[in-house]
Design brief:
Blueprint lengths: L3 H51 L7 E5 L6 H8 L12 H8 L5 E9 L3 E8 L2 E7 L2 E6 L4 E5 L10 E3 L15 H16 L6 E6 L2 E5 L6 E4 L2 H6 L1 H14 L3 E5 L7 E4 L2
Parallel strand pairs: 1-3, 4-7, 7-8, 10-11
Antiparallel strand pairs: 2-3, 4-5, 5-6, 8-9, 9-10, 11-12
Length: 268
């Protein structure tokens, strides 16, 4: 005969088995629901992905260009190699950036997508600092010496100083002028502009430590060795210019290369 304790144990075992079965069934249902949920998400995601990459809704129909001054929007757009009508997600932004960075005028650059169909190109241009005569050609240069572009022999339309006398005979667009004389010449002509605005617009490099600044028609010339001279001798230079004007002197040039003085060399 089965006693009461054995019956109770059997009942407890049966209850435990039922609970385990229910737990296993619940876990199985939960896993199935999770799998179904992710399958649905994956299916929707796949279809959305295909829609975004294949739909004309995401084709590029506008390129917005910001920050340009010297370069035209057409020049920047052509250089970017962006094709209107191409799917925005298939556009290689790194390729666009690398292509635009080949343009010397562009200093800083950002290209971004604006969903669904716009590309924004934001850039910062280099500043033109001087016109440089090299190998019988005229180039626009930045203050760092980066050759930005070539221009016609006239510098009309450009309010920039002209630097003559560099010994290099050729240079390519985008390359840097490394000659120390270039930097010194630019400092000298900029110092002259601070002291006497619009007075001098040409600087000639006569030797590595010998320079001549001139006015537009080459009737006023000042010879010096370094930028500090024009700053330190500002008063002497003003007095010399006043003397030349008052006495209507015919002057070959003003020499500021002496330590504490300057000399007015009169034409014979």
């Amino acid at each position: 005969m089965i006693n009461d304790n054995e019956k109770e144990n059997e009942l407890e075992e049966e209850e435990e088995e039922e609970e385990e079965g229910e737990k296993s069934q619940y876990f199985g249902v939960k896993v199935t629901k999770i799998l179904i949920f992710y399958l649905i998400i994956g299916f929707l995601g796949w279809n959305f992905f295909n829609f975004m990459f294949d739909s004309k809704f995401c084709n590029i129909d506008e390129v917005i260009i910001k920050g340009n001054s010297y370069l035209s929007e057409n020049e920047i757009f052509a250089k970017s190699q962006i094709k209107l009508g191409k799917n925005i997600f298939k556009l290689d932004l790194n390729k666009v950036i690398n292509s635009l960075k080949e343009e010397p005028w562009i200093r800083e650059l950002e290209v971004k997508r604006v969903i669904p169909n716009k590309i924004i190109i934001s850039l910062e241009e280099r500043k033109a600092a001087a016109i440089v005569y090299i190998g019988e050609e005229y180039f626009i240069s930045s203050k760092e010496g980066i050759v930005l572009s070539k221009i016609d022999k006239t510098k009309r339309g450009f309010n920039l100083p002209l630097i003559l006398g560099l010994k290099i005979t050729e240079i390519k667009i985008g390359k840097k002028i490394d000659e120390t004389e270039f930097r010194t010449a630019l400092e000298i002509i900029n110092s002259a502009e601070v002291i006497l605005p619009k007075k001098f617009c040409i600087i000639k490099i006569l030797a590595p430590d010998d320079f001549m600044i001139c006015n537009e028609d080459d009737t006023l010339k000042v010879k010096l060795n370094k930028p500090e001279e024009i700053i330190n001798k500002e008063k002497l230079l003003r007095e010399a210019l006043e003397k030349i004007e008052n006495e209507k002197l015919l002057v070959e040039y003003i020499d500021m290369s002496f330590k504490d003085s300057l000399i007015i060399k009169v034409k014979k």
